[in-house]
Amino acid sequence: MLLPSPTDEIHLKACNNRNIKLFVKRDDLIHETISGNKWRKLKYNVKQCQAMKHDGILTFGGAYSNHLLATAAACHMAELKSIGLVRGEELTIASNHMLKQCAGFGMQLVFISREEYAFRNEKEYHEELVLKYPGSMVVPEGGANYYGMIGCQEIMTETENDFDFLFVAQGTTTTSCGILLSIPEKTKLLAVPVLKGFDSSTEMRRMFSYSGFPSEIIDDLMAQITVLQDHHFGGYAKFNDMLLDRMEQIFNETKIPLDPIYTGKAFVAMLDYIELNDVRDAKILFVHTGGISGGKAIEKGTGRRFC
Ligand SMILES: Cc1ncc(COP(=O)(O)O)c(C=O)c1O
């Protein structure tokens, strides 16, 4: 595992003559499978599972879930069992390479209906699952819990943590909440949700509140974040040629690989923000949260180089 992950300075034409120092936190380099924020979100879940003497982790994901695969690999490494509840009863281990890899790491895959999957965040459902799969610690989809958030704090403690602006892609908000807990007051966090119509601030408030933060502290934390709502490119896993063109251009200039589902959208949002707000004289960090496997598949399909 490559930890701490590198914080690399990069140079982009878009930042020329602005006196901007731009860095990328290369969490995508942490591990081949448990890459990016996946390791950050799993680290303390794994430790908690061991401390509580559970046999393993039970979690949830779709047919192509990087979180399922990362959980399978992390549990395998920690000699824990893993159970993956997969959305879609029609699926099998042979349905795709991701599920095959999960099984290869020893994950027990259980294919459930979409109706059952809809209960994945319900407490009573978790209680039923623990009775059905004794010894399991239930971890939410995407590693979105307190331990996941605490693990994401470590992204910033591995840097000089003195940035003016920090940009990160947002799905469940676990990563951005963890980052928010660990940055100084002067740093402005800009989160880029990749889902259309996503209510970022409600989700972040929920995450903090589940973790026991009082509302005054949550208000202070939320004052430090701006949500860049308009860079979802149509919604989760949607993208267009404009996004791919810009990712290709970024890759050509920096050799930093991006994916079109999360990090590509966030990087482009950062460049647009700098341009639109005429940002100058600033130290900026882009947190690279990984996610290249989706990018690789699209690269193959389009024949274009952006990862
Ligand atoms: C590559 C990548 N970046 C960003 C995110 C969003 O992180 P979070 O769900 O913690 O907001 C994800 C989802 O886990 C992801 O896979």
Explained architecture:
This protein has about 300 residues and is of the alpha/beta class. The protein has two domains: about 5-35 and about 145-300, Rossmann fold (3-Layer(aba) Sandwich), CATH 3.40.50.1100; about 55-135, Rossmann fold, CATH 3.40.50.1100. The protein is about 40% helix and about 20% strand. The protein is built from twelve helices and ten strands. It has helices spanning about 35-50, 65-75, 95-105, 115, 125-130, 145-155, 175-180, 200-210, 215-220, 240-255, 265-275, 290-300; strands at about 5-10, 20-25, 55-60, 80-85, 110, 135-140, 165-170, 190-195, 225, 280-290. The strands form two sheets. Strands 1-2-10-7-8-9 form a six-stranded mixed β-sheet, with helices on both faces. Strand 4 (about 80-85), helix 3 (about 95-105) and strand 5 (about 110) form a beta-alpha-beta unit. The longest helix has 15 residues, at about 35-50. It is globular, with a radius of gyration of 19 Å. The two termini are about 20 Å apart. The model has no long low-confidence stretch (mean pLDDT about 95). The structure holds pyridoxal-5'-phosphate. Pyridoxal-5'-phosphate (PLP) binds near residues 142 and 289.
